[in-house]
Each structure stands twice: as structure tokens, then as C-alpha cells.
Specification:
The structure holds two protein chains of two kinds. By secondary structure, chain A is mainly α. Chain A contains six helices and no strands. Chain A folds into three domains: 32 residues, no CATH class; 37 residues; 50 residues, no CATH class. Chain A is 70% helix and 0% strand. In chain A, helix 4 packs across helix 6. The mean pLDDT of chain A is 82. By secondary structure, chain B is mainly α. Chain B has a domain of 90 residues. The radius of gyration of chain B is 22 Å and the shape is globular. Classes of the chains: A mainly alpha, B mainly alpha. Chains A and B meet through helix 1, helix 2, helix 3 and helix 6 of A and helix 1, helix 2, helix 3, helix 4 and helix 5 of B.
Chain lengths: 138, 222
Amino acid sequence: MTAGKKPSDPLEELNTLLDADLQAILDTGDDEIIAEAMEVSPSLVDDTRQVIADAVTTAGKRCLAAARAELDAEQQVSGQVLSWPLERKVVLLRQVRESRANLTIAARQMETETENDLDSDLDALVDLGVIDEEGNLL
Amino acid sequence: MRTRKNNVRNLGWVRLYMWKMGGVVDGKVGKNRSPGEIVTAVQYLSNAEVAKLANTARSLALKCRAEPKELLNEALLRALDGRRKTCPTTLPIINFLFGVMKSVADEWLDDGLKRTGEGVVPVSTGEEEGTIDPPSSGLTPEKALEDVQVRQHAAVVMREVREMFENDKEAWFVIEADLDGEMIADEVCEVLGVDRKRYNAIRKRIRRGYAEIRAKWKGLPS
């Protein structure tokens, strides 16, 4: 029980009553509180454990979905330049090589044999901040 | 076709998930438990702690007219998916979950009972209604109405609690002592002339009464 004056507001009264009850629950010994739960329902503890397990699963799925959505959104943005026609991508890569003398030799000598290689190179250039997702030189 | 990048990104969401569930951000260990640490903590609750959670949910459900399982489930989800961010490592997990349940109960009550679709129980022109103060100034008309409705609901609950226990001398004394807030449990036991075991039995009776009131509203078993 906490010190204080008797509240007059009904909401305050209800809060005070429930706070005192919560404190009493915390103060109750383990055996007694388990016995009380068993009186309510023999399966109350097991049922509550199931609520906890379900919540852990649901929360995990929500976090995964949120993380996936975040990365999908990012992928969608960086995918813009990759959806260009092949010829336009080749031109862009050439422009980058010609205009960025300060690129490392490795970056300037990217081996581009297939469209997959080209996409990977352009993706890397987006990550390096050499071009943006729309293919603009930065 | 961006196989390499896709592979990296497919691993990326796993890493991001692990990061979100893991807790250490930029190498800084905070004073709050991460969602991952909360997951671990709730999975290792003892039977007594689980029983305490269940009993607390039953009591708090009285306030917002929810089902105890619904209330506990929502509190757990908020704690576990990171919506409830402050969980000090120094606070026992059970106390933290009590706090989240209280917040959910407050929020659901603030929804003006819209959630259950029951609306507000009309309060007759009795003494209880007269005890409700006018809402604080500065509130919007909608918020002021909600404020009145919430306190009307609380007044109805308190009236039912009084009606249920005013003839139960021991329980009524404990309730009055709770409302006064000036006596600790040992003092209540001394005045009532009961030991702690008997006191806990009275507490149990009160909680059973709360469950009966809540169940009566919903037409459900307590």
C-alpha cells in the first residue's frame, strides 16, 4: 500500500485500488500465487505460458516483416537504375569510368561480361556513392 | 538478376532482424533491455511469475473491460516487438510487464470503450454522478467528452466494487485501507486481527470479486 490521501475522483480511486492489488500480487509468495491461479483454473499457468509463447512468435514475425519491408523498400529504390535497358546501362558505366579519375583501378577496370556483372557493378557504384539510384553521377 | 546483391540483401534482413532483436546498437550497451533480452526474460519466467502475470491481467481487465488474455497478449506484443522501448535492466521483468499492462488498460479505457462496442454505461443521477468533476479546461470537446466517459465508467466500476464488498467486513476494510493509502499490509493485518495467510486469502477474495464484476458485464465466467 502506498501513502497518500483518499482520492475522490472515481478514476483515481479505481487506479489506487488496482495499484494496491498489483502490489499485493507482487508481495504474495510463490506457492500461494500459484495455488490461487490453480483455483481460478488448473490450466491457467499453462494457458498463460501459451499466450507468452504465441506473443513471442507473433512479435518475431512482425519484426521480420518490418525488417524485410525496410530492405525491400531500399532494394526497390536502388533497383531503379538496374531496370534501365542494357544499352543505357553500358553508356552510364562508360561515363562513370571516363569521368571519375579518382576511382580505384579495380573500380575502373570492372569486368563486365554479362548483364548480371553490369548490374552488380552499377549496384556497387550506388553503394559507393558514385551514382545515385536514378543513375545520376554524384 | 542481381544474384550476388540479392544474396547479400537476403542475409541483410536476417542481420537487421537480429540487430533489432539483439539490442547492442553501434557497440553501445544501454541501460534498457533490448527486445531480444525481453524475449529471453519472458521465456524464462517461473511458474509463480506467470501466475502473477495472469492474476494481474485478471485485475486490470476490470478497468478496461477487456479479456485478461487479450490484455496480456497486447502488453507482451508491445514489449516484445520494441514498441515499448523503456525496460530498465534494473527493473524485474515482471514489474516491467505489469507497467505495460497498466498502460494498455489505460489506453483501452481512454478509447472510451469503443473497442468493445459497448459504449458508455449511463450513470444514473445518483451520488456517484455528482462526484465526477467537470473536465479540465483546455481540452477539445471530443477529449472532454472522453474524459467524462472514462470517469463515468470508473464510477460505475467503483459502485459495483462497493456493492459487492460493503457487507464483507474484512474485504471492505482492506479496500478502504487501499483507498486511504495510509496503512501497510502488516498494519491492516494487525487491525483486522488476521495473519498474513488470512490477509492473502482476503486479497484473493477481492480479486475473485473483480473477476465476477468483469464477467457479469460480458456475460462470461469469472
